[in-house]
Amino acid sequence: MSAKDVIIALDFPTKEATLNFLDQFPAGEKPFVKIGMELFYAEGPDVVREIKARGHKIFLDLKLHDIPNTVKSAMRVLSRLDVDMCNLHAAGASTMMKGALEGLTREDGTRPILIAVTQLTSTDADTLKNELLIETPMAETVMSYAKNAADSGLDGVVCSPLEAALVKEKCGENFVTVTPGIRFADSDVGDQKRIMTPALAGQSGCDYIVVGRPITKAEDPVAAYRRAVKDFLGA
Ligand code: C5P
Fold this sequence. Notes:
Oligomer: single chain
Bound molecules: cytidine-5'-monophosphate
Largest sheet: 8 strands, parallel, barrel
CATH superfamily: Aldolase class I
Number of strands: 8
């Protein structure tokens, strides 16, 4: 299921801006891309179809979280968009995760890779304890959510590059790790706190790295993408 790759986060507000960005790549070069809530809610499923028709693999990052039946039905709709990867919140628990898998599975038995978000990186230890009333420490909570996802049959989790090795240890070598928070040694950190370079991420067992601004805001995005791929794959 897992094949190491770099996924570009298409964090653009419109289809026009997104396609202008993708047009910079030569015709034969089709990076794996991530479409998130901003672009999807602005442009709807058509933007997914259009980018798919251009030959890109797509991670549809909509982080579903609702009652099992609703998530199952929504996943059925998303599977028809022919995306390659999608996700949900592990906080929805195992019945929801199993329902999602059922909904995602197409008639021919194929389905996109399904990964779980454990705890959002924006939730800190203080919020976990005092607002969400979860007394278990953050690292343990994250690993427990990852294990629930694995036990429910999901393919992997979104995690920090610093957690990838431990996730593999707990959930199995084939359990996919998708990691944002990637920065070149010489690029702007921005609002990311726990970061790693593509090269280190490659060595630490991440299967997919999600890279946004270090590529999208680069002076030469195509060169930045190629640099990320080369560093990550160690080629
Ligand atoms: O621009 P940057 O490389 O920081 O973009 C990272 C992408 O990964 C963004 O689309 C962001 O929403 C997403 N992401 C993240 N941290 C998480 C989950 C998703 O940065 N914990």
